[in-house]
């Protein structure tokens, strides 16, 4: 059973930290460290919010990491636990005693215009000094992410060709720098995981060595904290 209040509670009270924040074509991207020492990727834009944690995959809906961003970091909303009501932060400040059910937000996962405007406004005022932010990890993560964008992301493409490993058609694939073969992300990393030399299954070149360290990003997996430290 999906319990939203329970998740909001976890989002604001558990040991969750913000590691890094950036923006790309999908929207605002927040990298969030959970209690289990994994870093999750939360995407927030006006039309949808996504996370790569198990809870999100199971329910396809707001997980504690997304709610951590909305209720604790950017604080578009706050939850009044005494009266069991949601409020926009703005409404709370104005002492407007309106019951704001977040209906349009919660039922179609879309920000209402005003809420989205407020989200961007508060985000612009965000200070990295706040206690939900881990500064020492921030710089290391930023460098890792920069390298991923520079070394690996360019090899990812939405393309329909035959994957040389499983012979099925690809939708989203990763390219070998040398032989230009496109592989399913799953197929090539399953292959590379098995072999020490990280050589291409087609051309035997060692070009995958530079891409391999970023495979958590490429597969959109949660990232073990140890990888960044
Ligand atoms: Zn999550
Ligand atoms: Zn394949
Ligand atoms: Zn190759």
Sequence-ordered SSE layout with sheet pairings:
Elements: H1 4-13, E1 17-24, E2 27-33, E3 38-44, E4 49-51, H2 54-59, H3 64-73, E5 77-80, E6 85-88, H4 89-93, H5 103-108, H6 113-124, H7 135-152, E7 156-158, E8 172-175, E9 182-184, H8 185-194, H9 208-211, H10 215-218, E10 223-224, H11 225-228
Antiparallel strand pairs: 1-2, 2-3, 3-4, 3-10, 5-6, 7-8, 8-9
Helix pairs in contact: 1-3
This protein binds zinc ion (ZN) (3 copies).
Structure commentary:
By secondary structure, the chain is α+β, with helices and mostly antiparallel strands. The protein has two domains: 4-133, no CATH class; 147-228, Herpes Virus-1 (2-Layer Sandwich), CATH 3.30.40. It contains eleven helices and ten strands. The strands form three sheets. Strands 1, 2, 3, 4 and 10 form a five-stranded antiparallel β-sheet that branches. The protein is elongated. It starts with a helix and ends with a helix. One zinc ion is lined by residues 176, 178-179, 181, 200, 202-203, 205.
């Amino acid at each position: 059973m999906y319990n939203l209040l329970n998740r909001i509670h976890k989002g604001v009270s558990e040991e969750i930290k913000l590691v890094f924040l950036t923006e790309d074509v999908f929207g605002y991207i927040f990298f969030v460290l959970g209690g289990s020492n994994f870093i999750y990727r939360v995407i927030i834009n006006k039309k949808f919010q996504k996370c790569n944690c198990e809870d999100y995959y199971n329910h396809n809906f707001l997980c504690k990491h997304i709610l951590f961003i909305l209720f604790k970091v950017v604080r578009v909303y706050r939850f009044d636990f005494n009266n069991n009501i949601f409020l926009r932060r703005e409404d709370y400040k104005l002492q407007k005693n309106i019951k704001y059910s977040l209906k349009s937000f919660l039922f179609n996962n879309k920000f209402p215009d005003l809420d989205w405007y407020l989200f961007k406004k508060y985000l612009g005022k965000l200070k990295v000094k706040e206690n939900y932010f881990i500064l020492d990890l921030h710089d290391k993560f930023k460098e890792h992410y920069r390298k991923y964008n520079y070394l690996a992301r360019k090899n990812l493409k939405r393309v329909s060709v035959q994957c040389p490993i499983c012979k099925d058609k690809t939708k989203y694939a990763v390219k070998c720098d040398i032989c230009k073969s496109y592989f399913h992300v799953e197929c090539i990393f399953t292959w590379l995981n098995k072999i020490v030399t990280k050589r291409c299954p087609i051309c035997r070149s060692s070009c995958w060595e530079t891409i391999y360290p970023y495979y958590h990003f490429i597969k959109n997996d949660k990232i073990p904290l140890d990888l960044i430290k």
